[in-house]
Amino acid sequence: MCQLLGMNGNVPTDICFSFKGFACRGGRTDHHSDGWGIAFFEGQGCRLFLDYLPSATSPIAELVQNYPIKSTNIIAHIRKATQGVTSLANTHPFQRELWGQYWIFAHNGDLKGLPPVSGEHYRPVGNTDSEHAFCLILEQLRQQFAEAPPLPELSRALAEIVRGIAAYGVFNMMLSNGEWLFAHCATKLHYLVRQAPFAVAQLKDEDLSVDFSALTSPDDRVAVIVTEPLTANEAWRAMQPGELLCFRDGLPQPVTV
Amino acid sequence: MCQLLGMNGNVPTDICFSFKGFACRGGRTDHHSDGWGIAFFEGQGCRLFLDYLPSATSPIAELVQNYPIKSTNIIAHIRKATQGVTSLANTHPFQRELWGQYWIFAHNGDLKGLPPVSGEHYRPVGNTDSEHAFCLILEQLRQQFAEAPPLPELSRALAEIVRGIAAYGVFNMMLSNGEWLFAHCATKLHYLVRQAPFAVAQLKDEDLSVDFSALTSPDDRVAVIVTEPLTANEAWRAMQPGELLCFRDGLPQPVTV
User: Fold this and answer.
1) Helices B129-144 and B151-166, interaxial angle, to 10°?
2) ipTM
3) Which end of chain A is more exposed for a tag (fewer CB within 10 A), N or C?
């Protein structure tokens, strides 16, 4: 299985600290070494860094750890291949355009027997169950809505689509269009919201701590969502199987069908 | 105006040498400092690096110059904004999926009064004439062909679409799906094909030379396509206004309507 990391905040924030711990799990403190990727939304634009080298040794991962790209929505993924060979085309996150917005998706789990994508608008390039699921989501949304619907309407539609896909296996996933970030927990996903009063956080995977009170303003709010908690001294909340959350401005909102 | 750089070869080749010279033009030896980007195809997959910092000073450009990513199709772009603000969403190259393939596009020039994109399948995210033109290309191809056609058929269709768009202004562009690279010259584009016997090449923009005979096999063949020649001691061929070439395995084929 793979691991997921997401960030959603009300101010552009860099992910250097969290990604340092997360990247260790791609070949050093854990065995997810079949490539990795990270997507940063900046305004309407999106940067996607992909590598099929383990994140613990990838030169691109090193750059990402040290280059503070500030973003309000970030999704990262380290891969332990279950379906599909190790190749760039099979490396998460995946990106497509829908309604004139970039959408980013990453998945942890295993889906079997998914219905084929009609391919009217979207087709997988690689051969993972994950990209297949992403195309199913986009295809169904595109067929239900010619234009971007208001968020409550989108949330309801997405909840139904996600529930449908989750019936085919394990579907922990993150999805973002740069305004919001949806996170679905099938088996394992944790999150926390960092806000004032900020404190010192200590990574679990590396001997590194950061004092967020020195780096933040009192109104900042940032949610971090991850497969396994990244820090030892903060109160991570475990999401429940079947739970879908929509994060916006660092705040989680439950979404139900 | 901007500058374009493309590479197409019969073996995966890195572009470190050419990109070193090209990146200097983004703020050092020339004034194209409104961002830059580069896309590398590897198999069916594609990596796209984007930055709105000038390529001469961007940490990501430094990585790309020193990390030898081997690819058979590469497109790079340094931007001097004419339409659309400097932002990530307006940074070339642009990427979309068509027929289960990633397509990459970059443009140098200025287009005015383009017809709107129907948006049935593709919509621009940013507000450049370039991404608009890319969406027009994809939309028209998608409407003509439900599946990827053979290359000769695709070439004819593309030649017609490109001629249509070129009527709206200056349309130097490069387009690739990872198998081939199309280059269209409106005002300025040069290329050369490096093949045996390989020799020493000397950059124009930086004091750097490389002996390709030490780095290549006798069967290697690589075409480099660029706005302004990159080296001082090689025979670059200037493309003609209105000329469209399809590069495959390092060989250019003229395409006519």
Assistant:
1) 140
2) 0.93
3) C
